[in-house]
């Protein structure tokens, strides 16, 4: 006893009823490998991810309009065309993944390089401070160079503060024209501690596969 699904996969399979001495149920013995190679199913399988591709609808229109035969023939042409299109998409995706991996390696290399440059800059900055302690009082050129740099920093900080805003100090007058919508009773309910019943109702009202919190776990998990 078998069905069409099994025979479509193992077309040369053989099923035997093995006799049993102490039961009225006979075990089944299925031979698959010794009667031939496994058959490859040629059935068309529509993949859900195809609809996520931007070119899917356009590809369907192109394939459908490529023939003027009857409906069944057009459907067969469409299935064959979509399989070829999907194969090209998969190949393009593999090439894209390799390119993205190459770019990721390049970015990692740049990050390490920048880190080494930063360490080198910190080293020379520390050496400059040492030179200031050693040569600042005796080398006039060295002293004036650093004094000039300090004056530039003071000027830059002055104008940054002059043309920047620290925000509004008193914002009470901005809220005077807004009508109060939350009553004292509403505010009391909003600031009260959540009950188990409220949490359970909120959890059941969520979409099961959506993650609303920072833990990224969907409601189905809970």
UniProtKB/TrEMBL annotation:
<keyword id="KW-0548">Nucleotidyltransferase</keyword>
<keyword id="KW-0695">RNA-directed DNA polymerase</keyword>
<keyword id="KW-0808">Transferase</keyword>
<dbReference type="GO" id="GO:0003964">
    <property type="term" value="F:RNA-directed DNA polymerase activity"/>
</dbReference>
<protein>
    <submittedName>
        <fullName>Non-ltr retroelement reverse transcriptase</fullName>
    </submittedName>
</protein>
């Amino acid at each position: 006893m078998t069905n069409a699904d099994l025979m479509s996969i193992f077309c040369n399979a053989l099923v035997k009823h093995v006799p049993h001495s102490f039961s009225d149920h006979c075990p089944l013995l299925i031979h698959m490998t010794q009667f031939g190679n496994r058959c490859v199913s040629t059935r068309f399988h529509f993949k859900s991810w195809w609809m996520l591709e931007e070119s899917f609808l356009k590809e369907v229109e192109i394939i459908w309009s490529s023939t003027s035969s009857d409906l069944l023939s057009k459907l067969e042409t469409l299935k064959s065309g979509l399989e070829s299109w999907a194969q090209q998409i998969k190949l393009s995706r593999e090439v894209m993944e390799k390119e993205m991996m190459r770019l990721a390696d390049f970015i990692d290399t740049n990050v390490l390089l920048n880190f080494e440059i930063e360490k080198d800059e910190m080293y020379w900055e520390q050496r400059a401070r040492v030179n200031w302690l050693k040569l600042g009082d005796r080398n006039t050129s060295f002293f004036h160079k650093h004094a000039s740099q300090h004056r530039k920093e003071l000027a830059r900080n002055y104008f940054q503060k002059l043309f920047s805003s620290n925000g509004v100090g008193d914002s009470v007058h901005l809220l005077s024209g807004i009508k109060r919508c939350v009553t004292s009773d509403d505010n009391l309910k909003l600031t009260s501690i959540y009950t188990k019943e409220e949490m359970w109702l909120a959890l059941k009202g969520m979409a099961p596969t959506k993650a609303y919190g920072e833990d990224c776990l969907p409601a189905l998990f809970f």
